[in-house]
Amino acid sequence: MMFLDRFRKSRLVIRFPSNSDKPEFIWIRWVIVGVLSFILVLFFPRVESFQLSDLKEGSISPRRIVAPFDFEILKTRMQYQSDRALAIKNIFPVFYPDPSAKARSLKKLQEFMHTVFQYRSLVMHHKMDPSAVVDSLKKRYPQIPFRSEQWEILLDPSLSSQNLVHFEKVLQTEMIKILDIGLLNMPKAEIESADRHILIANGKTMKPISAEKFYDFSEAKAKVYSLLKQSFSENKKLVAFGVELISGILEPTLVTDVNAYKERIREIEAKVPLSSGFVYENEKIVDQHERITPEIYQKLVSLSQKMAEKRLQEKGIQRVLPYAGRFFLVWALLLLIAMYTFFEKPELLKDPKSIFLFSIVVLLASGGTFLLRHYNGSEYLVPVAMGSMLLASLFDAKMGFAGTVFLSVLCSAIWGNAFYLTVISLIVGSVSILVIKRVRTRTRLVEAVILMIGAYILTITVVGFFMHFPMIEILKAWRFGAFNGLVTPILVYGLLALFESVFDVITDFSLLELSNLNHPLLKRLSVEAPGTYHHSIVVGNLAEAGARAVGANPLLARVGSYYHDIGKIEKAEYFIENQVRGKNPHRKLSPRMSALILSNHVKKSLELAEEFHLPSAIKDIMVQHHGRSLMTYFYQKALEQSEDEEVNEEDYRYPGPKPQTKEAALVMLADAVEAASRTLKTPTHSRLKGLVEELVDERFQSGELDEAPLTLRDLQRIKESFLSILAGIFHTRLEYPEKEFSESHEKQRTKSSGSPSASADPLRFAG
Prior knowledge:
Elements: H1 3-9, H2 23-43, H3 47-52, E1 65-66, E2 71-74, H4 77-88, E3 94-97, H5 101-124, H6 130-140, H7 148-154, H8 161-181, E4 197-202, E5 205-210, H9 217-231, H10 236-249, E6 254-255, H11 258-271, E7 275-279, E8 284-286, H12 294-313, H13 317-344, H14 352-374, H15 384-394, H16 397-415, H17 419-438, H18 442-466, H19 471-503, H20 508-514, H21 520-528, H22 530-550, H23 554-563, H24 591-611, H25 616-624, H26 632-641, H27 662-677, H28 685-701, H29 712-729, H30 743-749, H31 763-766
Parallel strand pairs: 3-4
Antiparallel strand pairs: 1-8, 2-7, 3-6, 4-5
Helix pairs in contact: 1-19, 2-13, 2-14, 5-8, 8-9, 9-10, 13-16, 14-15, 14-16, 15-16, 15-17, 15-19, 16-17, 17-18, 18-19, 21-22, 22-23, 22-27, 22-29, 23-25, 23-27, 24-25, 24-26, 25-27, 27-28, 28-29
């Protein structure tokens, strides 16, 4: 799966404005939605298709259909071709022999080879330049379509004169055989008479004979090629030259007026009727619950085409109304999914990139449906499941399901209001969401294929029985459904790699790659900053538990935690978790310098993230997990040492920004809680609970969580999830006392500044 990472390294990223709430950026969202709506309307079928597209030969009609007007019953393509062939089978092309064609052809060959020998002699004796010879030959024989390099074959010194004489003799012998049998001046494939019979004009009589007894030009070239290949197997260029030469000098011995023959065919074709019957207005075509026979189906096809003709003849408002209805349907569907998104994930509506990605997925699914319908593909290949999988991977399962409903209705409408297709798409699309969330390895990808194939076959069978489809129709549908189930997971896997590369989005697949502890960055972290590495692993456990509790992305929270402090690799010894035997280099530095070193690890993290092509979602966590928090210990120390000098508080704050997502906020809280928990000498249950509550409340009250989409209920759930993880870590020392916090911890906590950010090991929080 590491191919995704290699693909990502050379990507061309399409970027969107980050602050899309500004008025100058709002238009981007409306343009995307407008273009999407316009394209979707173009995908819809003609109006008459809505009424008849769900009716198939052999199926049971769900309603009574009566002819709304008089119309002719059109012949099927097979019927028309049969009647046409019957009409023209006695139209024979008349060929006239050309007795002098053979002599002219042989003379052309003789003159051509004589000229070649003359020019070869001039070139061999350096009396003429080869390029000048080629130009002269081109002008002299314009009917022979040779390129310059082909002409040069004849002038090649390695081609002996003896071989060239043999070449001429072989061509001459074969030409005589072909011309003696007879060479037609038109391809046999264009002769449409019965058994490809032709008439040979022999004086005043016409003698019918099969064209198969003669050669046409394609057969003559193939015959010459076969013979030359046997004689000059080692000189393929000379063989090719001979074949082209034949086409330029051979003249047909049997000649007909091809244009006159084809014109006669067209006249006969025009007299072949296109219809086989007539249906009168108010005549019953098919009754409710009646099986659609081939005859009834052809009546329905004829009605559909007649309705299309009438639609083209309409003018004014009548012609506009169908398009207005399509626009209304598209906008109604978009409004429904926008309302769902507003209540479930409102941040997506403010993000042009998310809207654009959604539009791309919709266009892929609906465009695929349009192409399948346009080229008479099977409805069981409609790619709704592909769209469902992509939406579930790019966003989440909820958006995937909402998108499945949207795409099922939309694609069924594009196909022509096929109710059974809506049902199949809904069921299989929903199954595909569960399937894609299980795919974590190549083995699971194989499982996904098997499950998708099973889902299609089962759903098609059930819906087929419900719709009274013939069993033969259901069995045919199995093949297409199985193929769709086979291809969809593999196609989605490839498309996600493309989306990740081009749009800089993150999916579970790339997160799983990054969660591998053998990743080069994590390996470096474990070796060069082992304390930070262990800290990051524990932070990942805490953040993942919190994400599950508040409905965030657990995998993103864990992976973001793994990489949030990679910038500490550069100066690992300046961070308390990496210091051994009490060696603290900050004792020799000024508070301002210490603060610069600590805040600089965020910048270093970003530099390493760029070098290793980490996605933007991980970079955001890196820069946001400290927010705008104050490095209290060093700020207090600076105040104590300042004497009368003014200390700028901004110099001791992290650059921010504050957490913008649930995942970034969770990493911030988990980072603080993990560090603080290590300072507790006796981490009892009550002490851990008090520590977690105080740290989370402090971040909330200081405004660090103001821009994160978390509620007070979410914060309470985060506290509970953190406590359960910490209880597992420190379970060997738990005593579960009743008191909330002992006096000893209160003294320890307030020793420096009365804040959790300045506890007994202040650098634990400062970094």
